Amino acid sequence: MIKKINNKSVLIFIQNGLGGAERVQIEIAKMLKADGWSVKFCMISFVGKGNKISKFYPSGVGQSEIFAIGQLFLLKSIYREIKAAAPAVVFASAMHLNQRVLLLSPFFPGVKFVMRNENYLYTLPYMRRKILSLIYKKAHAVISQTEEMEDELVCIGIKKDKIFTLYNPIDDASIIKKASEPSPFPDNDKIRFVAVGRFSHQKGFDILIEAFAMVAKKIHDTELYIVGDTTHSNGDVLAQLNRLIAVNSLSGKVFFPGFRENPYPYVKNCNVFVLSSRYEGLPNALIEALFLEKPCAATSCIPIISRIITEGDNGYLASSENPSELADAMLKASKLTEIKNTYKPGSSDDFVSLFNRVTG
Q: Which residue, 205, 355, 176, is CA-closest to 278?
């Protein structure tokens, strides 16, 4: 039996990376801390993974680290962390971590478990969906990013009163400050397209380069920048993109700046932000580009994107896996000057109320 430190303490299991799920967790932690919660992060580190996210934690939080060097070791380490921290709430935000954390929930009957679902279940293999459908029932609350994601969770048997659909928050002040840093681009009149994300099949950068090849035939002075970790997928995606650049004679027009802790100057100073993904949960890069008042060209890979992007007002849409449509959207978006941002992020009140309700 564990003894709680207080009724407003949370242990957050977070992956060692800088993806959207991790950034949202940090933003939620800031909200909870401002409400008087005691916050501790436990970072799950994988061999060979850099970009430690701990430097982005809010000040005054507890910290620990687990090295994921085997499934049994990981489960034992998570167990020890929960036992030592004795939190009121355990919070995780990646489906594979949620699964492992919830396996241990029967050992901690006094602890509430809040899981955030970072992606759609249909992206998972059949057996993983079945396992999650059983294990998610142990959660006290599941945060869904969109209405469609909520429907998926209901379909696998999660009670509707356990599901909270909250759109991703935005750290307005931080984004504005970071975006104000000097432009990374030379001072000239080129039309620049920017995409941000890890080099993975999911992000559809191969589709983007094929689309950009069509754009470059119509706009002579144009460049494409894809900002993100080029080492992801063992460098296979990078190799594929370099082949496409060569085949389409785009040398000197496409640039890979690599991972950037602050990608916002690229977004702020481009002409068009492009989302070419095959699937997403709720794309932070897109909603942050809209916050920075950038015209967007995006694949409608999930339904909410068609609600975020209003064609002609803040961007244009294309079907997934369709370079021709994406090229058309990019060309049209490059002609937009002022845009309307219709995305309404989840508020501090929304997230704090959820955690207070779970412990109440």
A: 205
Same domain, 51 and 190: no
Residues 110 and 124 in one domain: yes
User: Under 8 Å CB-to-CB from 88, ≥6 apart: which residues?
Assistant: 4, 5, 6, 7, 8, 9, 10, 111, 112, 359
Do both 21 and 102 map to the same domain? yes
Q: Do 81 and 209 lie in a common domain?
A: no
Range of the domain at 234: 173-333
What is the count of structural domains for the chain?
A: 2
Give 43's strand partners. Answer: 14, 65
Q: What is the pLDDT along the chain (360 residues), one digit of tens a residue?
A: 444 456 899 999 999 887 889 999 999 999 999 999 999 999 998 765 555 788 899 999 999 999 888 889 999 999 999 999 999 999 999 999 999 999 999 999 999 999 999 989 888 888 888 998 899 999 999 999 999 999 999 999 999 999 999 999 999 999 999 999 999 998 888 999 999 999 999 999 999 999 999 999 999 899 999 999 999 888 999 999 999 999 999 999 999 999 999 999 999 999 999 999 999 999 999 999 999 999 999 999 999 999 999 999 999 999 999 999 999 999 999 999 889 888 999 999 999 999 999 998
Query: Is the Cα torsion angle 257, 258, 261, 267 positive or negative in sign?
Result: positive
Look up tokens 């061999």; give the residue: 47
Pairwise CA distance, residues 19 & 30, whole Å: 17
For residues 163 and 189, membership in a common domain is answered with: no
The total number of residues written for the chain in this structure: 360
